[in-house]
């Protein structure tokens, strides 16, 4: 029989709140409530479907010092899983780690409290979990950083490229050691919080924190491995479909407009030796919507923008309105009317782009041949913009050119 496993990742409580607003009824940011609701959807699904293992592959919070309310809501979800006797695996991600602290991380409290059924992956681990449908072998890797090597004297002075190579080799050797210990008759899941060389990176901006190492996907390919549950990259994607399946669950909710077009959710994995299957389920995230309008040639730019918004805005969305207008049009725009057209959105950001006045350089006559001669180019230009003053201005221009030529000769 298959072991039922939920694969979810990158919850990031506390992120994305700049795109929300306060809920007066609860005193909480509505976008935080969205993130909590998303996690609860997954937890409720796990309980209703009698899932054996709930695997969270890293980054519970925006950073390693979460506010108490974030910890409270995450703890409530874990308690529901524990009460339902669902084994929960927590992988420590980069946002969960306290830099330069090897003994603590943002999820340490759950480890210290010894929450029943919770397995913490804060160091390379091989464990076996007894489930109703059999025994599952789990290999886990927390987020791995250069810092962990640089603290060792023999690596302290190595160039960055060499450090990365050593770290990749070290990680591959750890996995090989675990693979050798596996029972080939039992199903195996490997989980890690890292970027693979074949991953398509998400384009979220809010949570980018410096350089991230890339590991070769091949380190996870082994005949004893059935499924690889990855976190860290926010875009849901299948790196390899089978033998083994290598999958990023992606982030659970949209963090910013970099994830506007990405669906968000979790995977229900049915793990069986050499016969693993999985399916992605959307949590139906709050829509992010960008409306773009170019009003450069419009007599009534406000009307054009409002009409586009009336056709496009999805109620409850996080909205971004980008409009291109000339400097002259900006003074004609009625921002109050534009915002009124956005009132059904959760929040709105107006992003005007002022088009520079380029009329003077848009003369088709000013082609490559004419601009080769400054005087010819000037004459062409004056024919368009000041024909009645052309002769006078050309004469003055010739005087200036002659004066410049004389100065150059004297120098």
Topology:
Elements: E1 3-8, E2 22-23, E3 28-29, H1 30-48, E4 53-56, H2 68-83, E5 87-91, H3 108-112, E6 118-121, E7 125-131, E8 134-141, H4 147-150, H5 160-181, E9 188-193, E10 195-196, E11 214-215, E12 227-231, E13 237-240, E14 245-248, E15 265-271, E16 277-282, E17 288-294, H6 301-312, E18 318-326, H7 327-330, H8 335-340, E19 347-355, H9 374-385, H10 390-410
Parallel strand pairs: 1-4, 4-5, 5-6, 8-9, 9-12, 10-11, 12-14, 17-18, 18-19
Antiparallel strand pairs: 1-15, 2-3, 7-8, 13-14, 15-16
Give an overview of the whole structure.
The radius of gyration is 30 Å and the shape is elongated. It contains ten helices and 19 strands. The chain is an alpha/beta fold. 29% of the residues lie in helices and 24% in strands. Helix 1 runs parallel beside helix 2 (68-83) and helix 9 runs antiparallel to helix 10 (390-410). The strands form five sheets. A six-stranded mixed sheet has the order 6-5-4-1-15-16, covered by helices on one side.
């Amino acid at each position: 029989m298959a072991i039922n496993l939920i694969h979810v990742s990158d919850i990031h409580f506390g992120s994305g709140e700049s795109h929300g607003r306060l809920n007066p009824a609860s005193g909480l940011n509505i976008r935080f409530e969205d993130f909590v609701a998303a996690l609860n959807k997954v937890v409720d699904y796990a309980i209703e479907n009698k899932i054996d293992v709930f695997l969270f592959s890293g980054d519970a919070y925006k950073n390693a010092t979460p506010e108490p309310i974030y910890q409270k809501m995450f703890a409530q979800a874990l308690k529901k899983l524990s009460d339902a006797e669902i084994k929960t695996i927590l992988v420590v991600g980069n946002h969960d780690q306290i830099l330069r602290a090897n003994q603590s991380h943002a999820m340490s409290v759950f480890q210290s409290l010894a929450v029943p059924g919770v397995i913490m992956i804060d160091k390379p681990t091989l464990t076996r979990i007894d489930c109703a449908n059999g025994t599952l072998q789990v290999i886990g890797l927390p987020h791995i950083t250069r810092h962990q090597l640089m603290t060792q004297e023999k690596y302290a002075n190595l160039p960055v490229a060499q450090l990365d190579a050593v770290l990749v080799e070290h990680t591959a050797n750890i996995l090989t050691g675990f693979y050798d210990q596996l029972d080939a008759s039992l199903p195996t899941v490997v989980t890690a919080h890292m970027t693979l060389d074949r991953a398509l990176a998400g384009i979220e901006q809010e949570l980018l924190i410096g350089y991230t190492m890339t590991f070769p996907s091949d380190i996870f390919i082994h005949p004893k491995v059935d499924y690889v549950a990855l976190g860290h990259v926010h875009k849901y994607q299948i790196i390899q479909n089978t033998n083994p399946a290598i999958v990023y669950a992606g982030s659970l909710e949209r963090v910013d407009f970099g994830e506007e077009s990405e669906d968000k959710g979790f995977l229900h994995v049915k793990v069986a030796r050499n016969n693993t299957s999985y399916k992605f389920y959307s949590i139906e995230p709050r829509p992010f919507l960008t409306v773009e309008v170019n009003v450069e040639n419009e007599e009534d730019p406000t009307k054009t923008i409002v009409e586009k918004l009336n056709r496009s805005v999805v109620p409850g969305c996080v909205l971004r309105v980008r409009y291109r207008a000339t400097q002259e049009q900006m003074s004609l725009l009625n921002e109050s009317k534009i915002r009124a057209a956005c009132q059904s959105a959760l929040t709105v950001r107006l992003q005007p782009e002022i088009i520079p006045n380029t009329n003077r350089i848009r003369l088709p006559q000013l082609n490559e041949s004419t601009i080769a001669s400054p005087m010819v180019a000037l004459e062409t230009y004056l024919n368009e913009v000041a024909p009645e003053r052309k002769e006078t201005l050309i004469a003055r221009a010739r005087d200036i050119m002659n004066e410049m030529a004389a100065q150059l000769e004297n120098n």
